[in-house]
Amino acid sequence: MTAPKTDNTAIDLQKVSRLLVASFVPSIASSVNDTIADVSEKIRKNPALLEDDAIEKEIKAAILLRIALDKESVKEMVESIDGVLDKLSLRLIDMIESSDNSNAEIQAIKKELESYTEESSVNFKIAHKKLFTIAVALEENTQLLSKNLKGHNEDVEALSKKVKKLEAELEETKKESKEDFLTKLYNKRALDEFMELKEAEYQRYERNYAIVMLDIDHFKEVNDTFGHEAGDAVLSAFAKILKKEARSVDIVGRFGGEEFLALLSDTDTHGGVTFAKKVLKHVEKSRFMYKGNRIKVTVSAGVSERKKHISLQATISSADEYLYIAKKNGRNRVEYKK
Asked: What SS3 class is residue 336?
């Protein structure tokens, strides 16, 4: 016959039951399994069950289940940390490799991150501490990088303003310049000023002048066949011919594109035609060469004189109209009012 339990024995069973139930709670897993909960509830309500051999099997199963839950949680945490480390490693390494200003601290972190692979054993406190250290360093260096980039942006903006200012000054200089950069003849702005002066002389002293408009024939074909550099070479060569045939009192310049203008002082239509024909003949005799290729060049011209027109603008328009007629009538010719 079993001896009756003493009060001390009952008290001991209660202590043991509480400790045992507490040990059933997973130390890592976030929740308690239903099976473990059932066993815990039985023992908590009836500590005397601990003396029954039948409960031993349930306790062992609960302990094994508790360990299994912790193992599963550990596995999930390792996988989670590995994923975080992988992403953080890639982002930080990319940032480091894209920057020429990586300091020693970041380089050390880079090596540390590269050392993380798929380690099965991880000390979570150490891993957490390292992750926190990395995050702080990343934040600090990102702020430094942002500050540097902001400084660079300010430098770029300042440089951009200087460039714009220089461009504006260059544009202003071009406007003030009277020389065509390619042909070294007078540009249209200068030609307009000289024609205004000639018009003033005509108004005051009735000093006649002639205007000759000249245009290189089929110039687009030259560019299309030999290239724009060849076209520039032809323009420069023709400008030299034009300047050579002009008198010291005459003004010659590039009116625009492949069109040129000659302003001939104290000259009538006949004198203008004579000048134009001399230029055309000179062009025909010249050899226009570019990189071993001979380029055939001809020129058309239109001539008008001031006395036959009511204004300077009418004289210019007339010369331009006769140039168009020369083009229409076969090119390489001079047209004027007979």
From this structure: strand
Sheet of 251-256: strands edge to edge?
251-256, 259-265, 209-216, 299-305, 334-336
DSSP label at 52?
A: S
Which tokens hold the place of 69? Answer: 């839950």
Measured between its terminal Cα atoms, the distance across the chain in Å is 155
Looking at the DSSP assignment, which residues form a beta bridge with residue 294? 289
CATH code for position 209: 3.30.70.270
Residue 168 in domain? no
* Rounded Cα distance, 47 and 16, in Å: 8
Q: Is position 259 within any domain?
A: yes
C-alpha 175/C-alpha 135 separation (Å) is: 58
How large is the C-alpha radius of gyration of the chain?
A: 49
- The confidence score (pLDDT) of residue 2 equals 47
186 DSSP assignment: B
Q: What is the DSSP string of 147-213?
A: HHHHHHHHHHHHHHHHHHHHHHHHHHHHHH--B-TTT-SB-HHHHHHHHHHHHHHHHHH---EEEEE
Identify whether 32 is part of a domain.
Answer: no
Q: What is the pLDDT of residues 290-333, one digit of tens each?
A: 998 999 999 999 999 999 999 999 999 999 999 999 999 999 99
Q: How many structural domains is the chain composed of?
A: 1
Taking the model in full, what pTM does it have?
0.52
Contact 28, 122 (CB under 8 A): no
- Is 30 within a domain? no
d(CA 270, CA 161): 55
User: What does the alpha-carbon distance between residue 72 and residue 59 come to, in Å, rounded to a whole number?
Assistant: 20
DSSP letter string, 253-298: EEEETTEEEEEEET--HHHHHHHHHHHHHHHHHS-EEETTEEE---
Distance set, CA 322 to CA 98, 179, 244 (Å): 66, 26, 24
Q: What tokens were used for 21?
A: 């139930």
Q: Which domain holds residue 306?
A: 188-336
